[in-house]
Amino acid sequence: MNLSINPSTRAMLNKVPEITIYFWIIKILATTVGETAADFLNVNLHLGLTGTSIVMGMLLLAFLVVQIRTNKYVPWIYWLTVVLLSIFGTLLTDNLVDNFGVTLQTTTTLFSVTLIATFVCWYLSEKTLSIHSIYTTKRELFYWAAILFTFALGTAAGDLAAEGLQLGYAPSTLIFGGLIALVTITYYLFKANAVAAFWIAYILTRPFGASCGDFLSQPTANGGLGLGTIGTSALFLLTILALVGYLTVTRRNEACARGDIA
Questions:
Q1: What is the DSSP letter of 11?
Q2: Neighbouring C-beta atoms of residue 212, cutoff 10 Å
Q3: Contact between residue 17 and residue 78 where contact means Cβ atoms under 8 Å apart
Q4: CA-CA distance, 14 to 261, in Å (whole number)?
């Protein structure tokens, strides 16, 4: 079905890729990179939280401008923006907790409220939260704001489960993975609302990916596998690059990006 675009807005094709297994794999990998890369820049490169936040904030702003100025879905621009949002979302939570002493419980609540407020404003303005209709700049700004707050919320919730509640990295990974599986089953078997299922799963992939990243990178004494932030970040970044390159060549996730689905 063709989308009718308000002539007063800048015409563009849908800016979000089709939701396939590739989308979810890259999303989880990007989430894990966000967790490990933030730690790498902060600790290994000795930039500190403030320095890391400034550098990543400037990079994110630059690529957000590039992403918003494009009039269609471009895989490498879109996914690089997601990776940078993942890192910056992690830094938002880390700054509140480590620099300002805000508890993980409060941080989780804060970003939950902020994300809900974003969804409410988005729906009141556009009457939809569907990612299949991101074809105006206003909707794209709502979309990226929601993505940022899902990353920040997921980081806070993941840290709260693994560290605050002392569940450990591996159990937290299993818990959040199980919740994602439950959402998937509810959607496919019980025909749950597609938009609600997508956003719930999207939120849950953040603490799942963050717990995976910590489990792989943290020392064995802390409950991890001890692969380190460098090795984990490099492995996942290379995997993301390979998948994005594959999708760019095959164009397998561009069906919705062409605006075929309302």
A1: P
A2: 26
A3: yes
A4: 9
Place of tokens 């997921």: 154
Gap between the Cα atoms of 60 and 145, Å rounded: 12
Q: Which residue has the tokens 């938002």?
A: 92
What is the sign, positive or negative, of the torsion defined by CA atoms of 186, 187, 188, 191?
A: positive
CA-CA distances (angstroms) from residue 205 to 89, 168, 186?
14, 17, 16
The predicted-structure confidence for 142-199, as pLDDT tens digits, reads as follows 999 999 999 999 888 888 887 778 888 888 889 999 999 999 999 999 999 999 999 9
Residues whose CB is less than 8 angstroms from the CB of residue 238 and which lie 6 or more positions away in sequence, other chains included: none
Residue type, 21: I
Angle at 188 between CA 161 and CA 117, to 5 degrees: 50
253 in helix, strand or coil?
coil
Q: Tokens in use for 50?
A: 């403030």
- pTM for the model: 0.84
Q: Phi and psi for 131 in degrees, rounded to 5?
A: -80, -5
User: pLDDT tens, 85-139?
Assistant: 988 998 899 899 999 999 999 999 999 999 999 999 999 999 999 988 888 999 9
> Whose CA is closest to 124, among 137, 112, 138?
138
**Burial status of residue 83 (CB atoms within 10 A of its CB: 0-12, 13-18, 19 or more):** buried
Task: Classify burial at 166, counting beta carbons within 10 Å of its beta carbon; exposed 0-12, middle 13-18, buried 19 or more.
Answer: exposed
Q: Check: CB of residue 39 under 8 Å from CB of residue 216.
A: no
228: left (phi over 0), alpha (psi -120 to 50) or beta: left
Length of the chain: 262
